[in-house]
Amino acid sequence: MEETNCEVVSDxxxxxxxxxxxxxxxxxxxxxxxxxQGRKTSRATSExxxxxxxxxxxxxxVRDGVRGVRHRAVAKEADVPLSATTYYFKDISDLITDTFTxxxxxxxxxxxxxxxxxxxxxxxxxxxxxxxxxxxLSQEVRQVFVxxxxxxxxxxxxxxxxxxxxxxxxxxxxxxxCLRNENLRPVAFNHQSYLLNSLExxxxxxxxxxxxxxxxxxxxxxxxxxxxxxxxxxxxxDTDMIRDRLxxxxxxxxx
Length: 255
Fold this sequence. Notes:
Layout: H1 10-20, H2 44-64, H3 71-78, H4 82-88, H5 92-127, H6 139-163, H7 165-178, H8 185-205, H9 211-231, H10 239-253
Helix pairs in contact: 1-8, 2-3, 2-5, 2-7, 3-4, 5-6, 5-8, 6-7, 6-9, 6-10, 8-9, 9-10
């Protein structure tokens, strides 16, 4: 068995974070490639109406799925003339793509706010490493470190399920539509990058040899736990199930 290198090379990790555009909290700017497809607006009133239309379309996605987005349905939901939706969006494809783009922008702001809110707790957890690989910590300190990481992840997931359930429903609706509509895939890739870049930065900071793969695996666990929690019967969240899975996953990744 290979001996674990107990020194985390902080200089290399700092350079990697700068290259990825990540902050000390792990958040990143991934919306540079986001572009709206519909008619461009220059006046504030026009942009406001355009936003109202997109927000109405997003409500329809949550309620009826992406296939429920039609010009007449959106105009009715937004309480605007049908001519307004066809003016800003020449076809349904542009309307759906721009609705997804708005969703991604809103999600990025929400995710950024979470990292900023959690930065103090994250720094407290990272301070436990004291420049070492997690595998080199004493069992007691290692358990405390894993516990703090799990607390952050559980807080994020529970907040999503309790306060942003509509967001999760829309997210899965768009993911399904990406299988049918290849025009949405670049937007989906951008959306995915917010979470993956942040997780990759984190796993790199704690000495992971394959932070990108660990980020993908952990993101998959989060999505599976969120989905299972949404479809389970009853109003109470099974936080024990959520915590047990995250403890197992994080413990395996930090070996």
